Amino acid sequence: SSDEEGGEEYLFKIVIIGDSAVGKSNLLSRYARNEFNLHSKATIGVEFQTQSMEIDGKEVKAQIWDTAGQERFRAVTSAYYRGAVGALIVYDISRRTTFDSVGRWLDELKTHSDTTVAMMLVGNKCDLENIRDVSVEEAKCLAEAEGLFFMETSALDSTNVKKAFEIVIREIYNNVS
Ligand code: GDP
Ligand code: MG
């Protein structure tokens, strides 16, 4: 934070990680622009989007980074993680393999981060209850063991999307203020 005109400014970098096609880009577009894309192309994506919220009467800006498809080639670079103080680790509740990858993503995140990172485990596509492949209980269990917040979301119907980002942003704010 820095003083400016008597107030304080906060800018937090948050990264979204997880296997390809779990819905990372759509979580970001839902949160930042209230948009959802049924046929989103992994290669089309902006580096990051900035979204503001108010905490304790202060403007807090979150700069949220999207991999733009790099994860397909296991080539998410250290630059992507640099300076991140928050992370959403996303899996798809209808595809177990994406949940099995969470540990690897956590390791990568920890390898690249040098400060406290507020972390949220996100089980996306909770609208696909009929083809659920990962139970809420086991995800909660993993989150507890790893010290992560946990939430199921749907970028499609908007369930918990705003909430997931805002919990992370508040936790970062608590960590630094
Ligand atoms: P990314 O590769 O992790 O960035 O995933 P995308 O955001 O590109 O989404 C991959 C596919 O999953 C796309 O076809 C999306 O329309 C779809 N998708 C994303 N989020 C949801 C969701 O919450 N529910 C459902 N049913 N589909 C989703
Ligand atoms: Mg993407």
UniProtKB/TrEMBL annotation:
Keywords: GTP-binding, Lipoprotein, Membrane, Nucleotide-binding, Prenylation. It is found in: Endomembrane system. One of its GO terms (biological process) is intracellular protein transport. The keyword Transcription regulation does not apply. Its main location: membrane. It is a lipid-anchor. It comes from the Eukaryota. Belongs to the small GTPase superfamily. Rab family. This is Uncharacterized protein. The lineage of its organism: Eukaryota, Viridiplantae, Streptophyta, Embryophyta, Tracheophyta.
